[in-house]
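Intended use. Records like the one below are meant for learning the mapping from a protein sequence to its folded structure. Do not use them to infer anything beyond what is encoded.
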Amino acid sequence: MKEEELRRALSLFMTGVTVTTTRGDGDIPVGLTVSSLTSVSLDPPLLLVCISEASRLLDCFRRCRYFGVSVLSEDQKEVSDKFSRSCLEERFEGISWESGETGVPLLQGSVAWFECERYRTLEAGDHEIVIGRVEAGGSRDGEGLGYYKSGYVSRPKPLP
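Structure written out for the chain above:
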């Protein structure tokens, strides 16, 4: 399958949108938009995110002890855009966030959040799979932000 065909076919799989965060050099908060969040195990509680080998933040996630995942709400499209497009040093500017129990940055307004201890990383093609053991987390009422056919979606319609 050609890359363009694969990309188009995968765009038909609806995903959620997250911002995955940790602390970089000098304890500076760093983060990026990630749509590949998967539950791996409930016992032990594990989840995974996939980060591009091209990401300038990949080394931070390879070295970190803890990382956070903020599941964005449907009104956080601009946050997703900012963490995927703006320069690294400006991503947290104007964004409300707080340090979680483990010290990782968590974005306020998210519908769910997880704090993970890095469990394992695995090379996988042009991405690295970062598996985390969930140490803390929570959720609130609200609708999550989705991504489908290369665009944002919200509030899925119930099936008939």
